[in-house]
Amino acid sequence: MFDISKYLTTAKNVVIYKLDSQKIASTVQFQTAEIATVINCTPRGVFEILTPNTFPNITAIHYLSAHPGQDAIYERFPKHVRWCFPNKNYQFYDAMVELGRGQKYQTLIDKYLTNKRIVDGAAPFDISYNFDLILPGYGTQDGEDYKRRFEAYCQKKEKELIDAELY
Question: Taking a C-beta distance cutoff of 8 angstroms, is the pair 37, 25 a contact?
Answer without folding.
Answer: no
